[in-house]
Amino acid sequence: MDQSLLRYLKELENLRNNQIETLAKVSHDLRSPIHSLKGIADLGIKKVNKTSKSLKSMLERNKQISKSFVIDKPIQELDVICDYFQRIIDISSDAAFLLEDILDSMKLDNDQVRYRMNENKLMDVARSVESRLSAKLGAKGIKLLILDQSEGKTCCFDINRIVQVVSNLVENAYKFSEKNTTITLSVNPTNLEVKDQGAGIPEDHFSSIFEKFKQGGKNSSKGLGLGLFICKKIMADHHGKIEVRNNHDRGASFRIVFGEN
Ligand SMILES: Nc1ncnc2c1ncn2[C@@H]1O[C@H](COP(=O)(O)OP(=O)(O)O)[C@@H](O)[C@H]1O
Ligand SMILES: [Mg+2]
Questions:
Q1: What is the pLDDT of residue 29?
Q2: In the structure, how many helices (H) and strands (E) does the chain have?
Q3: How far is residue 161's CA from residue 125's CA, in Å, rounded to a whole number?
Q4: Which of 1, 133, 217, 245 pairs with 211 at a CA distance of 20 to 30 A?
Q5: How far is the CA of 254 from the centre of ligand 2 (A)?
């Protein structure tokens, strides 16, 4: 190959590596203040709860106080302050997830992710996702139903990365589902399907939703459109694939499939 072309390719590679390093540094630097914010808000909630509790017990002990001092109002205001702190916590954890997604997509795009491949059970993935997300789903009245059809079989994959994929799919299902519906995880020997009862996806979007920064639907504002890109790349790196379809009744289903031996 021509020397100048080689030099050019080398420079291009260096530029790419610099870009990833800079992004990693920026993400890391942003991560610390975001975690500090969350920590401070956590402390705030604890303090406010403690004060509110002691005011309430003071009120209980001496009913007269409530007549002589206006004490109900400050207690209500403390509850409002607690809600503000909770919002700071929620927003900072969303921001932390977005940062992770940016960094991850960059690394995946440049094949810089190292996988720890082992024989694992897809049922362990389903259980791990359930324990991570059931509280969040429960708060919206959404039930996570796990159907075990895996016959105890194993597949070769990086368990942390596949938990990341399935969590992403369940988070999407959650985001696009109405309250009090069900998300079903069907676990089979070499595939796992996440089925929701949400709005479904227009068929002409089936391939574009897997592209970087592609979003659609009214609930997509929370996010950057990187989730499905990350899922597709992780599955491709496992020599597997991800498929999407609309259900007969309502909602969409995403299925991750590993190489069938
Ligand atoms: N379960 C689902 N139901 C309906 N639409 C979905 C679902 N999952 C993904 N989508 C569509 O695919 C788009 C891309 O998803 P994703 O890459 O995870 O990005 P984000 O969640 O940040 O919007 C979403 O904006 C949405 O339009
Ligand atoms: Mg998403």
A1: 86
A2: 6, 7
A3: 10
A4: 133
A5: 12
Indicate which residue's Cα is closest to atom 20 of ligand 1: 225
Options 3.40.50.880, 3.40.350.10, 3.30.70.3340, 3.30.565.10; CATH of 118-257: 3.30.565.10
pLDDT band at residue 47, thresholds of 50, 70 and 90?
very high
Q: How far is the CA of 117 from the centre of ligand 1 (A)?
A: 28
pLDDT digits (tens, 9 = 90+) for 88-144: 998 998 888 888 888 888 889 888 899 999 999 999 999 999 999 999 999 999 999
Give me ligand 2 centre to Cα 4, in Å. Answer: 42
Best probe residue, ligand 1, of 102, 164, 172 (max atoms within 8 Å of C-beta): 172
d(CA 148, CA 167): 17
Ligand 1 close to Cβ of residue 178 (< 6 A) = no
User: Which residue has the CA at smallest separation from atom 8 of ligand 1?
Assistant: 172
Q: Give the distance (Å) from ligand 2 centre to CA of residue 224.
A: 8
What mean pLDDT comes out for the span 21-46? 88
pLDDT value, residue 25: 83
Query: What is the distance between the alpha carbons of residues 127 and 162, in angstroms, rounded to a whole number?
Result: 12
**Cβ(143)–Cβ(137) below 8 Å:** yes
Round to whole Å and give the CA distance between 231 and 247.
20
Say what the pLDDT of residue 221 is.
61
Domain limits, the chain: 3-109, 118-257
CATH match of 3-109 with 1.10.150: no
